[in-house]
Amino acid sequence: MPQFCWCSQVIQWLLEHGADLLSRNHDGERILTKVCSLGHAHLLEYLIKTCGLDPEVKGLDDKTPLERAGETGDFDIVKKLVDLGAELTNSVLHAAARHGQVGRGRFGN
């Protein structure tokens, strides 16, 4: 977990110096959705539990982190998000199906 400690310390330092965790990067993506798309469950939990980010905050293309995780088929991230309060909706399952993730033993079937 040394990477988690280092990353969380950087995030904490940025917050102490006025960073806005709801801002978007140069691609229009928010940190929470980016962390989900990269599969960093440990940072996801830190950002939601410690930093107070809403697991339903929308990122690029007006998608929630859970919808993005459904598209990539990252079941660990989907489970972590649901455990942290994200709502598992039909749109998440539809996103997973559109991207070929349903039926791979992770989402349904």
Describe the structure.
This protein is mostly helical and 109 residues long. The chain has a single domain (2-98), classed as Alpha Horseshoe (Serine Threonine Protein Phosphatase 5, Tetratricopeptide repeat), CATH 1.25.40.20. The chain contains six helices and no strands. It has helices at residues 2-16, 31-38, 41-50, 65-72, 75-83, 90-98. It starts with a helix and ends in an 11-residue tail after the last helix. The model has no long low-confidence stretch (mean pLDDT 82).
How do the helices and strands line up, and which of them pair or pack?
Blueprint: H1 2-16, H2 31-38, H3 41-50, H4 65-72, H5 75-83, H6 90-98
Task: List its traits.
0% strand; 109 residues; Serine Threonine Protein Phosphatase 5, Tetratricopeptide repeat; mainly alpha
| N-to-C span | 33 Å
Helix content: 40-55%
The CATH homologous superfamily is named: Ankyrin repeat-containing domain
Rg over CA atoms: 14 Å
Strand content of the residues, in percent?
A: under 5%
Tell me the number of helical segments per DSSP (H or I, 4 or more residues long): 6
Instruction: Work out the oligomeric state of the chains in this entry.
Output: single chain
The CATH topology is given as Serine Threonine Protein Phosphatase 5, Tetratricopeptide repeat
Give the C-level CATH assignment: Mainly Alpha
Secondary-structure-derived class: mainly alpha
Low-confidence stretches: none
Q: What general form does the structure show? A: globular
One letter per element, helices H and strands E, the order comes to HHHHHH
Count of structural domains: 1
Number of strands: 0
CATH architecture: Alpha Horseshoe
Average pLDDT figure: 82
Largest sheet: none
